[in-house]
Design a protein that fits this description.
The complex is a heterodimer.
Chain A: E1 9-20, E2 23-35, E3 40-44, H1 51-58, E4 66-75, E5 78-79, H2 85-91, E6 96-99, H3 103-106, H4 113-125, H5 129-142, H6 148-151, H7 161-173, E7 179-183, H8 191-208, E8 211-215, H9 219-225, E9 228-233, E10 236-242, H10 243-248, H11 253-260, H12 300-304, E11 310-312, E12 315-317
Parallel strand pairs in A: 3-8, 3-9, 6-7, 7-8
Antiparallel strand pairs in A: 1-2, 1-4, 4-5, 9-10, 10-12, 11-12
Helix pairs in contact in A: 4-5, 5-7, 7-8
Chain B: H1 2-29, H2 33-37, H3 44-53, H4 60-72, H5 86-121, H6 126-140, H7 143-157, E1 170-172, E2 175-177, H8 182-215, H9 218-225, H10 230-259, H11 261-267, H12 273-282, H13 286-314, H14 321-325
Antiparallel strand pairs in B: 1-2
Helix pairs in contact in B: 1-4, 1-13, 5-6, 5-8, 5-10, 5-13, 6-8, 7-8, 8-10, 10-13, 11-12, 12-13
Classes of the chains: A alpha/beta, B mainly alpha.
Chain lengths: 333, 330
Amino acid sequence: MASERSPLLQVENLRIAFATRRGEVTAVDGVSFAMAPGEVLGVVGESGAGKSLTGAAIIGLLEPPGHIAGGRIVLGGRRIDNLPAPEMRRLRGKEIGAIFQDPLTSLNPLYTVGRQLVETIQVHLGLGAAAARQRALDLLKEVGIPAADRRIDHYPHQFSGGMRQRVVIALALCANPRLIIADEPTTALDVSIQAQIIALLKRLCRDHGMAVMLVTHDMGVIAETADRVAVMYAGRLVEIGPVRDIVRQPRHPYTAGLMGSIPTIGGRRDRLQQIDGAMPRPGAVPPGCAFHPRCRERFARCLDERPNLLPAGGGAAACWLHAPAEAAAVPHG
Amino acid sequence: MIAFIIRRLCQSVAVMLSVAFIAFALFTYVGDPINNIVGQDTGLREREQLRHQLGLDDPFILQFARFVGHAAEGDFGLSYQYARPVSELIAERLPATLELSLVAAVLALAIGLPVGIYTGLHRYSWLSQLMLTASLVGISLPTFLTGILLILVFAVILGWLPSFGRGSTVALGWWTTGFLTIDGLKALILPAITLGLFQMTLIIRLVRAEMLEVLRTDYIKFARARGLPNRLIHFGHALKNTLVPVITITGLQLGSIIAFAVVTETVFQWPGMGLLIIQAISFADIPVMSAYLVLVAFFFVVINLIVDLLYYAVDPRLRIDRAAASGHGI
């Protein structure tokens, strides 16, 4: 596991809650994981599983009424979840970059891409106008924008979706951050463009030694890109481990269900498996294991005792099947 | 760009022609102009003679062409009421109305814009709530009532400001201005507030709504994720994106300020075009009415043209047509 090196990011027991009229609703509950420098961690789960919220919490952009209600986030040995707003602002873009889902709406339509790059570079690196523009130009070249010296003065609407996502990536790279939170970076793109963007992210990650937290619901993208995978369900981390292990032999019944629902070329299965039922909404998560109502392997302990991450295979799974005492027991359910 | 301007100019000419047509129809169909000129005991023959002299028996198209030709030169004939050229009457009154409208519009923008931005950025602060509640009063009070209340408080009870008229003015050529005397400036305050109040509250609410909308967009979130300081995000990125709708409404409102100065001018006995048109209507002074109609339409058309050009300056997406055609969109 990557945690043998000193971790770049540590998330410990993170809890994100929303203040509503009916009291606090917990959307992310007790999530812990670590990321090593230069590591690509894929975070998967259904919509509403809390994966984007976790990313937003790390970069300090949770939108009210959402807030961090517990736990710690440590970046490079420095606790960042309780930083005052101006310090967190200086951290954003400089140490943690972000890439959002929709490149069409991530750029301000009224300014040229060059201007948006230059302002970001100047805010973080304090370069002069000419040096900042040169760096902007270099970044555009690095992310593969053809004729960058001409394109730098173009407006976002003059770029295609894939090119815009490259510009967004260049913007995230402005200050050479150590960590990039990429929230569904390829979801809004054509399949053929997706592969290019993923290849670009992988190359940048390797060249700059950046760690990338890749939030997506696309297992294909994860299998292609990530070193490790974290699977989230109903605001909890249910399984984490090396991507190879999890794709080949998932240890949590939910992950297994998730893998079973992916179509494969060659058609070895006649039907895609599906998991019956739906993920519980925040605030309506059942006691015990959050997945137990939908789980085919549940037993008595799952109903009232919440499992923590237990070592399983090359990683860890939050499932009582992997408790030392239960491992040999016959599931009945 | 040039094609765009030419297209807009053609549209403007079409609008002006239709308005001129309505103004012209006033003459022809609202009563008989001869009746308005001659006395009761004028004989039929003399009436016919006069009708011929004035060209009123010419074909409709010819009369309309003549009207447009004269109007283009600023000639709208003689006022029935004053027996003086309408152009002279309007030239006398125009400066008063334009100065009042200008001050009202500047006031509305100078207060409306910052308050709108503030209430948009600080949604839940008590000051925002207070200003929004106050703006509700401004938007719901009718103009004449605001005017009368202001007169009551500042002219009658406190005695600080004059309740009517323009005060003393200074003539600069044919233009008379109230900007250069203390008296004239004091007289401007109450009518300008009355006239600008509604527009001001409208601008506050518009800017606030636009600000809230823009602050929710992805590019503002992304600007935060890039670590830009708040000031740059709010005033550099968000404000500029709210400008297009704000320019539209402000432009249209400036037109309405000029056109609907009528009520305010009546309340304050302001010697502008509004007062002139009210008197003209009660006297059925059709040349004055039609001239006013054409003039107000002209203001609207010019303002709209300027608004369109401002869009062009603000939003690069409107400038793209040619670039896209030459193959820059990859």
